[in-house]
Model the fold of this input.
Amino acid sequence: MKGLWMPVLLALAASIFTTCTEDFQLTEPAKPIPVVYGLLDRTDSAYYIRVEKAFVSEDIAASTIAQNPDSLYYPQADVRLYNKSQKLEFTLLKVDGNLEGYSRKAGPFAQSPNYLYKIPSTLVKLNGGDSLQLRVDAPSLPGLVTADIAVVSDLRFSFPDDLTRQLKFFTVNSFDFQWKHRSNARVFDLKALVYVEEVDLVSNTSTFKVLDMSIAKNLPGREGSGELFTSTKVFGSSLYNVLHDQLQPATGIERYLQKLEFVLTGGGPELKEYFDVLNANTGITASQEIPRYTNLSQGFGIFSSKFTVVKSINPEPPTLDSIQAHPLTRDLNFK
Done:
């Protein structure tokens, strides 16, 4: 499991693929309201779904109720995934996220227990394009909560292609990164992980750092049918800015730029629709009310899928010469 889509107020999300604030505020009539979140990635080792209920009381503050696990979770929820394409149904197991390595951040909600519903991806064996339905039931619900999606298909870089292993990164150049996808991938994030080795010349020990270089967030994909192509520019200057901003000049160390890993994630149309709703409510004429978007049959939340692909690129030798000479990076002692 590489990432977990937490139950959050998505209007506060900076990106569809990053951790978000766990604020949720409802003013609906006093009845159980399901709140369900799940974002499945076929490259993950397990799938997690969060199922909670909204809390409304005229007598007790929401912040107080949110700290009570009995008010936050359904005691007997049944969570299933039904693959319509394969005609197979799978029941998810209730687990404590704290014991799975996914602790809940401090905030308005009870941190322990941190119930999630889990199933190993090897049991479900999703294929890109599969028609998938989430089914949630509990005794206090008026009916089954469902959400239908098409699983995001594989993504593949067309540039840099499989044969491209190296690129030159200068402050004055740029590349048009392009990838292939299907219509079930509608919004994209692209970032680079910059791997740097630092060698202490006194102790002769190495420290490895990974720097995060954001390139594109919530980028709408090309629409249509069949095989589609979406692209974005990657500026060489971004590498120099990241090195300058995230590293400090230091004596007694040498640095080595090892590689860049370009991480592309494509999200389903449900996420694209959410951001369309959010963006329609921004600007000086926007209302103060945060827009609510859900693809659940009842309640609130989002069920969708994503797919992640990684392309590793080594910097060509002239890149090092440029880093050693450029004013932004020449004091960082790259060798």
In short: Helices lie at 62-65, 69-72, 121-124, 236-246, 269-279, 317-325.
